[in-house]
Amino acid sequence: MQVYGVIGDPVEHSLSPPMHRAAFKSLGIDADYSRFRVRKGNVKNAIKGSKSLGIDGLNITVPHKETVANLSEIEKVASAKEIGAINTLDLHSMKGYNTDVIGARKALEKSGTKIKNKKVVIVGAGGAARAVAYGLADKALSLDIINRTAEKAIKLAEEIGDKAKGHSLEYNEELIVKADIVVNATSVGMKEEKSPFPVDYLHSNLTVFDLVYRPIETHLLREAKKRGAKTVDGVSMLVLQGAESLDIWTGEKPPIEVMEKKIRNIL
Ligand code: ATR
């Protein structure tokens, strides 16, 4: 039997175990997937131990993605190298990947939203925002990153390059009005909070993508729908980053509908 898991802290609410178990079952793969709570100082030992135990692969979640990217034993592949954060580890090859970057891009594309030459506004400048920024930077015309702590947005924009600009959370009406795609990559919206920015300027030419998936329909997405915008919810990203991990581990075509149905049923 193959064994996979997710390490993080906290990790008890992770939806990866039911999602991946459903996928393995659907593919007829004899495999299990568990959650492991790993404290900050124990990450390196946890990975070494997992390899010794014969565990096949791991997902890495908050707050360990950067720590794992800094371990010399692990070869960073593709976007993991650029972004300096790993969320997927193949313990056979000891290669680390970042499937959040691909998941963000695919979630938008799956909704029929074109990214090429589009004006993108990203709200937030933490780990999730970085993955989105890296995922969209190649194709987008421009990336405006707005964040409560403006310095973090400016720093992320500098990292991305000429296309990107960082801003504070205030006075961003014009950016929203001119945008084609707006992404909420903050944690605001969980527990029925309002949107992290005023929703008055959302419009029908927009795609609004909210990474928050609990609740599935956030205040922001509800308001966006009311104004005729196309909406993409956080489940889509969760599933598509997971599907990429599954592909890396097994080489099988991920059963995306099965994985998505499982998550939507739980939520
Ligand atoms: P993640 O890895 O999920 O991105 P994170 O790195 O802690 O988590 O980033 C959280 C993001 O949500 C940040 O952009 C944060 O803004 P700050 O950089 O100013 O902290 C944003 N955020 C969290 N709570 C917020 C709030 N109440 N209003 C606005 N932005 C908020």
Structural overview:
The longest helix has 17 residues, at 234-250. 41% of the residues lie in helices and 21% in strands. The protein has helices at residues 16-27, 43-53, 65-69, 79-83, 99-110, 127-137, 150-160, 173-178, 219-226, 234-250, 256-266, and strands spanning 2-8, 31-37, 57-60, 75-76, 88-90, 95-97, 119-123, 142-147, 164-168, 181-184, 188-191, 207-210, 230-232. It starts with a strand and ends with a helix. A hairpin with a 4-residue loop joins strand 5 and strand 6 (95-97). It has eleven helices and 13 strands. The chain is globular and about 55 Å long. The mean pLDDT is 97. The strands form two sheets. The protein has a six-stranded mixed beta sheet with strand order 2-1-3-5-6-4. By secondary structure, the chain is an alpha/beta fold. Helix 5 crosses helix 6 (127-137).
In short:
With 267 residues, this protein is α/β, with parallel strands linked by helices.
Mean pLDDT: 97
Class derived from helix and strand content: alpha/beta
Please compute the radius of gyration using only Cα atoms.
Answer: 18 Å
The count of strands amounts to 13
Helix proportion: 40-55%
* Ligands bound, unique: 2'-monophosphoadenosine-5'-diphosphate
Low-confidence stretches: none
Strand order of the largest sheet: 2-1-3-5-6-4
Main β-sheet, in a few words?
6 strands, mixed
What percentage of amino acids are in beta strands? Answer: 15-25%
- Count of separate DSSP helical elements: 11
What labels would you give this structure?
267 residues; alpha/beta; 6-stranded mixed sheet; 6-stranded parallel sheet; 13 strands; globular; binds 2'-monophosphoadenosine-5'-diphosphate
